[in-house]
Amino acid sequence: MSTRRKFLQGAAGAAGVVFAGCGWPGTALAQSPGGARPVTVNGKRIKTIDVHAHCFFREATALLGEEARRLTPSTIRGSEATYLTLEDRLKSMDAQAVDMEVLSINPFWYERERDLAAGIVAVQNEKLAELVAAHSDRFAAFASLTLQDPALAVRELETAVKKQGLRGAAIGGSVGNASFSDAKFHPIWAKAEELGAVLFVHPRGVPELAERFKGNGWLANTIGNPLETTIALEHLIFEGTLDRFPGLKIIAAHGGGYLPAYPARSDHACYVGEGLCDKGITLAKRPSEYLKQLHFDSLVFTAEELRHLVAEVGASQVMLGSDNPYPWQGHPVDHVLATATLSDDEKIDILGRNAARLLGLNA
Questions:
Q1: Contact of 300 with 321, CB cutoff 8 Å
Q2: Over 70: is that where the pLDDT of 243 sits?
Q3: Helices in 214-363 by DSSP H: which ranges?
Q4: Please, are residues 317 and 292 in contact by the beta-carbon 8 Å criterion?
Q5: Distance separating alpha carbons of residues 107 and 39, to the nearest angstrom
Q6: What sign has the CA pseudo-torsion 69, 74, 78, 80?
Q7: CB–CB of 32/18 below 8 Å?
Q8: What CA–CA distance (Å, rounded) separates 175 from 111?
Q9: Range in 5-19, 40-54, 123-137, 300-314 the model is least confident about
Q10: What pLDDT sits at residue 17?
């Protein structure tokens, strides 16, 4: 038996989890039984709301033609399940003890020609609206936006919120080489603020580092995804975007990337040298304080990391996230319940009450 196999089996035994297949925990975690619905905390029934769950619609990806085959590589566990089949998804949610998912679609259209991207977005938003209307007890959704055309994105967002019953929009971490602090995106943030729409920031990686990410460990995702979220949030903070739009409601995926792990460094960035922060931007508060104006999912894997996230941003800013159907965190509810440093009220907040409040859902 290899050293690695012995380590995995030992770790599994310690955690009460049996690894299967090739030895990685993902498939076993996603398929093994976890907590059951309904979830209770101290005898109180809790509605669990997962703000980080994905799907695709074949009607939308079909617009890509042959390229659609490369959209969900078969090497990624759960990729085929991303094409939403209602019965299978409900079974998956029940196994995770999740009452409601807020669905989002990771942007694969930002680099596409504008009219093609607009067509993809239109189909996706229509399908999401149909699903939510038919199953409002189990699903809410974030709209897709054609962000490469900000004027069009503003119209799409208004339609999504006012006419289609969607709760906001899912966005990447950047569009091409443009950060979201770029003034061309300001009309979108202004419209989101006006509508009270929530923006779910989900990264797409950092393609500029593709060569450095080559090798073992899927570093383009493992490192690249949280890194892009970190960069996106730092730009929004340091370029004054969050001061310009103080009512903007943002949820950052994967616990906000690396930013909540090292916020104090941002507070010192403008004091260690001349001319580092003198572009005519005066922030209203310390950079680390903006974390308490943002929201984060709970997808940070361990009780210690969740404890730290809550310590930095407050339990009121954290909400349940699983990445379903991708098996990053098979039992997100169990993860929250097992974090002993959280009070019962904090667990209730994270499991569903925060999301219900932010998104205007019934708790």
A1: no
A2: yes
A3: 219-222, 224-238, 241-244, 263-268, 303-313, 332-337, 344-348, 354-359
A4: yes
A5: 32
A6: positive
A7: yes
A8: 8
A9: 5-19
A10: 32
**Any idea which residue has 């059951």 for tokens?**
36
Amino acid 120 reads: I
What type of residue is 104? Answer: S
Of the candidates 262, 246, 359, the one whose C-alpha atom is nearest the C-alpha of residue 309 is 262
User: What is the average pLDDT score of the chain?
Assistant: 89
Question: Which residue's structure tokens are 């960035």?
Answer: 269
Decide if pLDDT at 310 tops 90. yes
pLDDT digits (tens, 9 = 90+) for 95-153: 999 999 999 999 999 999 999 999 999 999 999 999 999 999 999 999 999 999 999 99
Q: Residues 24, 68: one domain?
A: no
Residues 15 and 73 in one domain: no
- Within this chain, do residues 204 and 270 fall inside the same structural domain, yes or no? yes
Number of domains, the chain: 2
Please tell me whether residue 198 adopts helix, strand or coil conformation.
Answer: strand
C-beta of residue 153 within 8 angstroms of C-beta of residue 109? no
Higher pLDDT, 78 or 259: 259
Burial class (CB in 10 A: 0-12, 13-18, 19+), 54: buried
Q: Which residues contact 288 (CB under 8 A, 6 or more apart)?
A: 263, 264, 266, 267, 312
Measure CA 217 to chain center. 21
Residue ranges making up the domain that contains 327: 37-359
CA distance 169 to 256: 17
Tokens of 4: 């690695």
Per-residue H/E/C for 19-64: CCCCCCCHHHHHHCCCCCCCEEECCEEECCEEEEEECECHHHHHHH
Whether residue 9 is found in the same domain as residue 125: no
